[in-house]
Amino acid sequence: MSNIIKLRKGLDLPLEGAAEKKVLMEVNPDVVALKPTDFKGLVPKLLVKEGDSVKAGTALFADKMCPEIQFTSPVSGTVQSVIRGEKRKLLAVTVKADGKMEAEDFGKHKTETMSAQDIKTLLLKSGLWASIIQRPYGIVAKPDATPKAIFISGFNTAPNAASVSFSLEGQQKYLQAAVSALAKMTGAPVHVSLCAKSGKNSPLAGLNNVEYHYFEGKHPAGNVGIQIHHICPIRKGETVWTVSPVMLASIGKLLLEGRVDMSRLVAITGPEAGAHAYVKATAGMAISDIAAYIPENNVRIISGDVLSGTNVGREGYLGFQDTQISIIAEGDYYEMFGWMNPIRSKQFSASRSYFSWLCPKKKYNMDTNIHGGVRAFMFNNIYGDVLPMHIFPVYLCKACMTSDIDKMEKYGIYEVLPEDLATCEYVCPSKIEWQSYISAGIDLMLKEMA
Fold first, then answer.
1. How far apart are CA 65 and CA 130, in angstroms?
2. Residue 435 in this model has a pLDDT that exceeds 90
3. Which of 19, 80, 152, 188 is close enough to 96 for a disulfide, judged by CB 3.0 to 4.6 Å?
4. pLDDT above 90 for 336
5. pTM of whole model > 0.85?
6. Is-cis flag, bond preceding 189, omega within 30?
């Protein structure tokens, strides 16, 4: 463990409601949804219609620009609805589960006997190719691209994030099969990053055909983008691929068992959650399936963590890659005197504006109130204190705001995704929506440069 990268910048949000390492129940989904909006830059082409029977692994839609990339059903059942938005934009395809979990048979495989093209064809046909994310831009990997490396983050430092070690306990054989297949398919090195303190106990430890790195530091140390920046920075014209640990396990199950299995442990977290533990669920499950753990009062339900997740509401669905549901109170109230009251013992301040810094281990019942309004965007070194990257975050954000492609390239747009700058958004005294502007900048780059 001599290769330890210590990050001195970052911010751990002391939020109440972390999940205990126990499983409350197994969710038998009634309806699941596959959402094109979970995939950056996707132009979907619908392949089914309402009433069609499908199995787990049956293609529901494909990428219109790259038809070999298919997106498949997580469960067996009947296509219930095709949900569209403005200009008939495809928002989701919902499947009414039949409870049988019948799956398409893709055949059991051994990586040693497969060619690189065989592995690629299997992943594309099964729909699990969608789990491979390409940087820059965070899009689904292009089959004809040649990455210089593949990165896997074996830990998560986001607020109350699901434990990777607990979620993947006992799945080492699937992880090894997937890692071996990815390495053979691309010929690129596979980098696995682990927590310096607890990495030796991770299911991702001790795998063959990988290069290990150990990180020590506050959030966003667990973000794969931060790890790439410190191990193998992305330059213009280069690509790297990333795979989340939970999707890595799904790829391994496909290889060894010949079926698409999108089941996973999902952490129910947040101060307002009725229980703080895990449920065994499926990608795309309806939030209503865990209604027993959601209070009736005014809360925000987030698929993912509170800093970079998606507000899905009570009628929404779990994201394709997500392993966490966060529930916090809506902050729709006016706070008299606001920041002028220095006592505020129940409020956390990253800048030591209140006396909360005297209690470093205290957890807080936070809500969505931003405690102020949007104002002039001024330069402040507070952003550099919470972002462990060698870039100029303020200049990058302003370049995205003004759609200046040259400056976006100059200041690091190839190295970041919105989630990497979530801590900057949290501490921003100007209340600027950093992640929205970074996302808009990436959209512009995809339109003009990709």
1. 14
2. yes
3. 80
4. no
5. yes
6. no
